[in-house]
Amino acid sequence: MEGKVESLWEEVRELTLGTTVDRLQSPPTPLQFLRDFVSQNKPCIISNAISHWPALSLWSTPSYLSTALSSSLVSLHLTPDGQADALVPHPSQSSLCFVSAHVQPTLFPQALDLIRRPPNHLVAYLQQQNDCFRTEYSELESDCDAHIPWASEALGCLPEAVNLWIGNHLSQTSFHKDHYENLYAVVSGEKHFLLLPPTDVHRMYIKEYPAARYSYSQENGEFRLEFEEPERYVPWSSVDPCPARASLKQESLKFPLYFNGPKPFEVTVKAGEVLYLPSMWFHHVRQSRGDGGCTIAVNYWYDMQFDIKYAYFNFLQSLPCRSIDDQTIPEGDCEDDSGPHASSNHLNSRFSGDESATNNVEIHKDRDNVQVHERTFVLDSSMFV
Q1: What gap in Å lies between CA 100 and CA 330, rounded to an integer?
Q2: Is residue 322 very low, low, confident or very high in pLDDT (cuts 50, 70, 90)?
């Protein structure tokens, strides 16, 4: 099997993906979208798909948002450095842990002010995700479409969740994947994505890390880590694709499959553009602020099909993969994330009630874990984190 997986990375680019992400100047027809992108699990950027949204002009004015949401209590995510759902040094061990943000109910005008004028000791981000646009921000629903019509027709369903993201240039998201077909519409500012297809799973050096959460004290302005009880482990990518220049060589030696393999796809999604991010694609995200001092986006999560491609990717995950350079398996490489610490709920659920049953098959999904149960048959998989 040696070398076969590495060959796959090149072949999938030569046969299907090419070297750049396709850009469409107008929305595709449902048939074109399904045939050329969804069925091929291939991303694209679409222009002129949301040009009719009032949000494009209204949301760049902070006063409009603050007035519309003047009495709305929203879930504000706080971190010391803009990195949540990320790996940080363990406070008592020479290792890493997985940390989530401190979540604090806050009146929207106060939350927006923290984002637009960040203090030195914390980074604020509105990113609740649990269908938050239709719950916490329902006053803004008329400024956008309830769904993406051509995508809904192609996928045969309406979005399972619609989320609003409001942040600044200090926030970034580490490599992860989602079990959803994602239509990501940027309203203000720019989003900068690094993308890798599911076939590159071995290059992510997925490993299990103890789960913790930031706890923030308003009295002294300090963060501390609180580990979950009972103890829980989260499978997460160990790779930082943007290390400091001083540590680049060390990171390259530590993760050769990533740094010596094919380059990730780099795309910038500007205000008014929509990114189709296929299910199970790994993505790392940074952002640049717009005129109103924020980066704002709305994304639509559609259910993915757990079809033969999903079975293929599960099989691929099970294959051993040696380092390109020294033919050894570095620590954390090809880690089986269904090990002794695997959990049926690795991360917070994307939104409440995310369970569905079809033909006696029950599927439980969250951000990085999918379990399929049918009578005595059990498949426990969290392969693409």
Answers
A1: 26
A2: low
In 3-state terms, what secondary structure has residue 218? coil
**Distance separating the N- and C-terminal Cα atoms of the chain:** 23
Beta bridge partners of 162: 300
Among 134, 265, 111, 133, residue whose Cα is nearest residue 200: 265
Phi, psi of 42 (to 5 degrees): -125, 125
Q: Cα separation of 383 and 385, whole Å?
A: 6
d(CA 33, CA 363): 26
What SS3 state is found at 292?
A: coil
Tokens of 103: 């979540």
- Domains belonging to the chain, first-starting first, are 1-321 (2.60.120.10)
d(CA 78, CA 216): 8
Query: Rounded CA gap, 214 and 227, in Å?
Result: 9
Percent of the chain, pLDDT > 70? 83
Whether 76 and 206 have beta carbons less than 8 Å apart is answered as: no
Amino acid identity for residue 346 in this structure: H
Torsion, CA 6, CA 7, CA 9, CA 10, rounded to 10: 140
Per-residue pLDDT tens over the stretch 140-186:
999 999 999 999 999 999 999 999 999 999 999 999 999 999 999 99
Listed in sequence order, the DSSP H helices in the chain are 4-12, 30-33, 55-58, 62-68, 108-116, 149-155, 248-254, 256-259, 308-318
Count of alpha carbons within 13 Å of 288, Cβ hemisphere only? 9
Say if strands 96-100 and 206-217 run parallel, antiparallel, or are unpaired. Answer: parallel
Amino acid at 67: T
Q: How far is CA 39 from CA 95, 160, 351, in A?
A: 40, 19, 26
Helix (H) or strand (E) holding 163: strand 161-167
Span 115-149, pLDDT tens digits: 999 999 999 999 999 999 999 999 999 999 999 99
Residue carrying the six token digits 């046969």: 15
> Is the bond into 105 cis (omega within 30 degrees of 0)?
no
180-188 vs 161-167, strand pairing mode: unpaired
E strand map for 12-141: 22-24, 44-46, 73-79, 86-89, 96-100, 102-107, 123-126
